[in-house]
Amino acid sequence: MKLLSDTWFMVVRQARNLMREPIWIALLLIQPMVWLVLYSQLFHNAPKLGGFGTTSYVTFLAPAIVVMNSFFGATWSGMAMINDLDHKVIERFLATPASRFAIVLSQIVRSAITAAIQAVIILVVAVALGVHVHSGVGGWVIVILAAILVNSAFSGLSQGIALLTRREATMIALANFIGLPLLFVSTTLIARAQMPSWMRVAAHANPMDWGVRAAREVVLPGTSWGTVGLYLVFLLVLSAVTAGFATWCFRAYERTL
Amino acid sequence: MDAIVVEGLEKRYKQVRALDGVSFGVREGEVFGLLGPNGAGKSTTVRILATLTKSDAGRAEVAGHDVRREAGKVRRAIGYVPQDSGVDQYGTGRENLMLQGHVQGMGGAELKQRVAELLGLVGIADAADRIVKTYSGGMRRRLDIALGLVHRPKVLFLDEPTTGLDPEARVQMWAEVGRLARQESLTILLTTHYLEEADELADRLAIVSRGQIVVEGTPPQLKATLRGDAVHLVLSNGRMDDACRIVERLGATPETVTDDRTLVARVENGNRALPGILSALDQDGIGVESVGVSRPSLDDVYLHYTGRDFAAEDRGEA
């Protein structure tokens, strides 16, 4: 119970601080739209290559952009932890009975909430661009869930690395290092059929691609709910593992004090 | 019962021996000062007592609980005001206090009321709903202290409470701390590298130097051990040995020689002894550049017990 209430109050703190940043809010809203509009224009003719499951590229793309956006958000989520470490906010919590896990978990939850809000915005814009979510309301829920799970899986990792390195420069380098490669070794922008065979294999091991496939499955016709469930379970397990990793890193950080 | 018991604490950071067997006790309701220059081990001691850092050896009890085995109980019983604040700069003063109360397990109307009370008590009620980033240094420090007090702790740790404050704010803070100690019936452990601060605030104090407690007592007790005034003589032609001999012959005790030119001599009544000392030195052809007489201060106590100059050590010159 202490874990939940501490997490809640810490999430409220972070969310409130973010809401006081007008530029941050503007970017939060605009960024996903930029992705959606730019990519859908750029690759407009891609479905002609075949294997996309739809003739509308924006329909193919929209669920993947939701996941990609939440993935990128997650890779940066450790920055807030570094900021709190630098300002000794974490140390202040450590001298109180605050749940240690809540300190880590609140960062992950805050990041996931942001991802969920952006997911809704992207879906709304996508619908305005003519995308039809084939499986209806349930589909929306699955897309948002995929975004949340991809985000928590990677923000656990990001938090752990933040706690180990405690340096912004290292975090930035690392986020860039994993960000684009994982984007390109996935079916985010292009159909599986159009990928070189080694990439198709590699994409199986890419958790972001798990999220993309689950989200796309419910947007395009012919949804296989088994596939959706499987990928979401994979992501859930991975989220638990990376949250565990982040907690382990937190203990390591405590030992350096 | 003692509010804080510390026995043989040791702590190493890689090659640096931060604490080398620190022991002391703080009685309930007392303001206890750990006085020492930067890097002496004061903050490390407090961090161990606040359960942030684990010691390598020794044991410590705070409010009757072992800091290692009963860290949770200690954390509920203490308020820790660290050297670097740790407030959330992007939140308001009130929000910071509410969050602190919540993680301490408080809530509802009780917490709201306590927060309002504390904001008034430390004198930042007018700024309560402003973002902390807009606060002055003194206001931030007040908020820091209020954060440590939200849950009505039994023991409050103040790590360098006035470092970074201007002299005026420092004097105000001293008055504040003294008042809080009484109003909240707290035991306070404060660390400082300001001799005046320890003198002003502490009922009892321990002088810390290089990871060890050098001496412990009330400020008057410590000063009394020095017996008499200090006569400071700065020699112009460096005949230190001769000067020491002459001073000794006149019944003063040449105590410490801080550099090659400054001689400090202890004597019952400095003002009376000074003319005699000066004329004796003059007769012997020993030039004196400047003189001074001072009542015993904690500076002298530090010098007496460590053989080192406090200010130089604080700047890291020793």
* Secondary structure category of chain A: mainly alpha
Biggest interchain interface, per-side counts? A-B, 22 and 29 residues
| Element-by-element helix/strand order of chain B | EEEHEEHEHHHEHEHEEHEHEEHEHH
> What percentage of residues of chain B falls in helices of 4 or more residues?
25-40%
Share of residues in strands of chain A: under 5%
Give the low-pLDDT segments of chain A: none
The structure class of chain B reads: alpha/beta
- Tally of extended strands of chain A? 0
Overall shape of chain A: it is elongated
Offer a few descriptive terms.
heterodimer, A: 257 residues, mainly alpha, B: 318 residues, alpha/beta, six-stranded mixed sheet, four-stranded antiparallel sheet, elongated
Notes on the protein architecture:
- The complex is a heterodimer of chains A (257) and B (318).
- Chain A is mainly α and 257 residues long.
- Helix content of chain A is 78%, strand content 0%.
- Helix content of chain B is 38%, strand content 28%.
- In chain B, the strands form three sheets. Chain B has a six-stranded mixed sheet with strand order 6-7-8-3-9-10, with helices on both faces.
- In chain B, helix 6 (167-183) links the parallel strand 7 (155-159) and strand 8 (187-192).
- The longest helix of chain B has 17 residues, at 167-183.
- Chain B is elongated, with a radius of gyration of 23 Å.
- The relative contact order of chain B is 0.13.
- Classes of the chains: A mainly alpha (257), B alpha/beta (318).
- Chain A binds chain B through residues 2, 5-6, 9-10, 13, 16-17, 20, 87-89, 91-98, 255, 257, and chain B through 47, 50-54, 72, 75-76, 78, 80, 82, 84-91, 95, 99-100, 102-105, 131, 147.
Summarize the structure.
The complex is a heterodimer of chains A (257) and B (318). Chain A is mainly alpha-helical and 257 residues long. Chain A has helices spanning 2-19, 22-42, 57-75, 78-86, 89-94, 100-128, 136-165, 168-184, 197-204, 207-219, 225-255.
